[in-house]
Design goal:
The protein contains 4 helices and 4 strands; from the N terminus they run ααββββαα. With 120 residues, the chain is α+β, with helices and mostly antiparallel strands.
């Protein structure tokens, strides 16, 4: 499991002015402002006894740690697991190559990685 850098997530969230439930925009802004990698995929949030899979966007820093400026605001007993589908560098975003992962990519990762995780 890749480590989430919570301190960096909070710092970047405060600087770029993230909006709750706007992970795609928040992560794109963070990638461009801080030179991070932009990632789209699935995130599994375990809140209390429930596993909740959602399509999500987050970032990776230069150490390969997850920087999640949107999920950092979740409170309580919350666990995260991330399943990337595709990623773009901040240079690609700045050049106008905006990420649009295909439905097939999301479905494939869900069937191969997320669904078995939920059934264990």
């Amino acid at each position: 499991m890749i480590k989430t850098n919570v301190e960096r997530s909070v710092l970047i969230a405060s600087v770029v002015g993230v909006v709750p439930q706007q992970c795609y925009i928040n992560s794109a802004k963070a990638a461009i402002a801080f030179g991070l990698v932009y990632v789209e995929g699935w995130a599994i949030f375990k809140i209390d006894d429930m596993f909740i899979p959602i399509e999500h966007a987050w970032n990776l820093n230069e150490e390969g740690e997850i920087v999640d400026t949107t999920a950092v605001f979740l409170t309580g007993n919350c666990y995260h697991e991330y399943f990337p589908v595709s990623q773009w560098s901040h240079n690609q975003l700045e050049a106008g190559i905006y990420p649009l992962a295909s439905y097939q990519s999301f479905a494939k990762v869900f069937i191969e990685k997320v669904e078995p995780y939920l059934n264990c």
